[in-house]
Inverse folding.
């Protein structure tokens, strides 16, 4: 049940971002397309570790 709640919360946050800031998300998509693969891996790893660390604190 908790997993479904977490997935629903992701949809709420993503939907809100698309509804409120569509132009910024387009810019972010362009950035991702133009970014180096290694840089994207590092950003993803940092986000993963940050998220996991914050979850452990809760």
């Amino acid at each position: 049940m908790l997993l479904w709640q977490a997935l629903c919360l992701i949809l709420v946050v993503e939907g809100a971002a698309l509804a409120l800031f569509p132009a910024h998300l387009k810019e972010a998509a362009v950035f991702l397309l133009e970014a180096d693969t290694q840089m994207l891996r590092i950003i993803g790893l940092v986000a993963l570790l940050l998220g996991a660390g914050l979850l452990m604190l809760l």
Observations:
- The mean pLDDT is 94.
